[in-house]
Amino acid sequence: MQMRLRTFVLFFLPVLVFGGFLYYGIAWNISISLTNYSLLNPKPVFTGLQSFITLFNDFWFQAALKKTLMWVGVLASLGNVIGLLLATAIFQFKSPKVRHALTSFFIYPMSLSMVVVGIIWRWIFDPYKGIDIILNKLGLPTPAWLTGNNAFWSLALVSVWVYAGFTAMLYLSAFYNVGASLIESAMVDGADMFTIMTRIVIPNAKQGLIISVIFLALFAIQMFALPFSVLFMNPFTMTLVMYIYNKFVSEYFCLASATAIIVIVISAFIVIPYAMWGLKRWIIRR
Amino acid sequence: MRIYWSKVYAYAVIIVLGVIWAFPIYSLILGSIKSLAEVMNTPIFVPPDAPSLSTLASVANAMKTTLLNTAIVVIPVAVLSTFFGMLGAYAIVRRRSKLSDTLMMLVAIATYTPYQALLVPFVHILKFFNLYNTLPGLAFGFLIYYTPMAALLMVIFMSVIPSELIEAAVVDGANEFSIFKRVVLPVLGPGIVSTLIFILIVSWNNFFIPLILTRGYGKFVTLRIFSYVGQSGTFYNKMFAAALLGSLPPLIIFIVLGRYFIRGLLVLGTGAKG
Questions:
Q1: Which of residues 100-129 of A touch B (CB under 8 A)?
Q2: What are the structural domains of chain B?
Q3: Which residues of B touch A121 (CB under 8 A)?
């Protein structure tokens, strides 16, 4: 017997209200993006797609769009490589306690604020007080970490440092699902651990790959606090979200909203299929 | 002797990456116990000759109001969003229909849509309710985002409760509130703790929402930490002390109750079976 509709509404009401504001926000963005609302035009007038035309002709918008997409590419690819390295290494330990301790250790950057991460790495990249001193002694090259376009690559690597443990966790949970019996029977057949990993475990971790690509892409699209706390509004590391913030601070609201719509559309390509796919797995059918 | 290459591989990866993972937190702790003289002369990773807690103490004194403000916002946000999410999730699990499936989809999309894209309307909403630049307003902003997220987490945690358990109570003629209290709540403990801990940590660490919804740097911990970047120039000890102090609550929770945080992360990623 199911819950009555009235009770359903009662229980669901708070989620409906707060979630409603979120959707109201999306609708507000759409309507404002079609106007000229800004500091100079406090009374919005409908201007059609003019904001979007302005955006796509703006050099800094193009640069920010490119940076965000590049960040998605770097984080989703390198995050997966490092995450897979970690997961396969952690999987070699048989004790659940050791596995858990290692997984937690590699996830700890996610329990720090991105501002804190930014502050620490800003100093690690410092030419006089940071990692360069060690690299010099070892005779290794010391790139100008935070200068010009290098800054993007340095910070993208930092974001990999933050999220690789999370990816490792997703892979490990996929590995555990492979099943001990399958692995044991392969061992009885004389297969070594390398063969077992490459032939049995990793091919069965497709779900880990899909989910981690989705999440790393979402994390990259949202990138703001890390570049902002290290280099403020540096053109070399300006992402779409930073561009929105910039337009918001300068009260160019229609451009901020139009950029917000573009961010939402980009993420919708990832989020909507994932939510539809997830619905089947999240709710175990009764 | 046979060499176990898989073990060699495992240790090599763990040690090399382990050093890279440990280095930042190691430097953070060292930097915050250095005196001014040592900050001027030593790189961040060299331990101080004479460790001192004076920097931490003075920064703690400067930050205490902000830390309190943050706790005042974040704790109710975590409790309320978990509670609301739990009620919403119960409704969805107890009434399976096209409508509840659609609502569930909308909740999931809301959870994963970048909230940064919604900043302008959030400011607009808060100004409308006269809550801009206030702690309740900040909490309200957090709730808009974290309530749907909590609902999604709780749906996943609840979906593993055997339906026979609930059906039996329905047959006994219990009403929804007592089913919820007697049957669902007792088995939902770990799920509730996971959701609570998860939202506590991610909201404490959030930078963007307080940056947009308040003015100045005094109302939220991450803003306060950020303010040290501009003002302390080359004296990294103050910056590190602020960063360390501001990270202590989430770090301690992570160290003590990390498995709940990880469970929350895992469930957001892979669902109940993960």
A1: 100, 102-124, 126, 128-129
A2: 1-52 (no CATH), 54-270 (1.10.3720.10)
A3: 24
pLDDT at A216 over 90: yes
**CA B76 vs CA A119, B54, B157: distances in Å:** 28, 32, 21
**What tokens appear for A119 in the block?**
């502050």
| 8-state DSSP, A4 | P
Q: Best interface-test mutation with A: which of B77, B118, B204, B225 has the largest number of A CBs within 10 A?
A: B118
**Residue ranges covered by each domain of chain A:** 32-282
Phi, psi of A21 (to 5 degrees): -60, -40
What ipTM was predicted for this assembly? Answer: 0.92
What is the CATH code for A32-282? 1.10.3720.10
Q: Which of B263, B246, B248 is nearest to B199 (CA)?
A: B263
Best mutation site among A11, A192, A202 for testing chain B: the one with the most B CBs within 10 Å? A11
Mean pLDDT per 10-residue segment, chain B (274 residues): 78 96 95 88 89 92 95 97 95 87 90 90 93 96 95 88 82 84 88 94 96 94 91 79 95 91 83 54
